[in-house]
Amino acid sequence: MVRMSAEERRESVIRAATSEFARGGYHGTSTEAIAKRVGVSQPYLFRLFPGKKAIFLAVAERCLRETREVFEKSSEGLHGEEALHAMADAYTQLIADQPEKLQMQLQVYVTVAAAEAAGDHEFGEMVRKGWLELWDAVHLPLGADIAQTTTFLAYGMLINTLVGMGFPPGHRIYGGLYESGRAKSGRGDA
């Protein structure tokens, strides 16, 4: 049996923690569940990450970065409406194919709101930084148009909320969204 390096094990923890946090949220997920999913002891888990908060922050950062990368890749070489529709299509396909990504995003926002209300700003600082990077990734292909960027991201958050509440693709509630921004079935369902 080949042993994993610490970096490979960290990656395994981030993947496992993504699944656990996406389902149970920050407060509803134990480090024991994460360690069990990875197949390591809790003491080993804490050699890789100093605590649950550090694991959650790593997962949240990854979630935001991967979302930003979807926007960057899909809009590469495109501008304006063409970029808008390419990014909307890529994002809605991402959350259809990998619903855990959307669940994790929603858990991140809930966790930040709860932490901020309790006076803990560390979660919020990291997430706001990631969101600013995401904003810039969308803003530039949309011609640096603030109104268009705001509308695009607002539609995205609306889509997140509707999909999170379980409105299926094709539901009339998506009728006011442009076609590329409507919820999709997973690639296996299409």
From TrEMBL:
It holds the Pfam family TetR_N. Gene3D superfamilies: Tetracycline Repressor, domain 2 (1.10.357.10). Keywords: DNA-binding. PROSITE patterns: HTH_TETR_2. The keyword Amino-acid biosynthesis does not apply. The keyword DNA-binding applies. Residues 30-49 bind DNA. InterPro entries: Homeodomain-like_sf, HTH-type_TetR-like_transc_reg, HTH_TetR. Transmembrane segments: none annotated. Residues 7-67 form the HTH tetR-type domain. This is TetR/AcrR family transcriptional regulator.
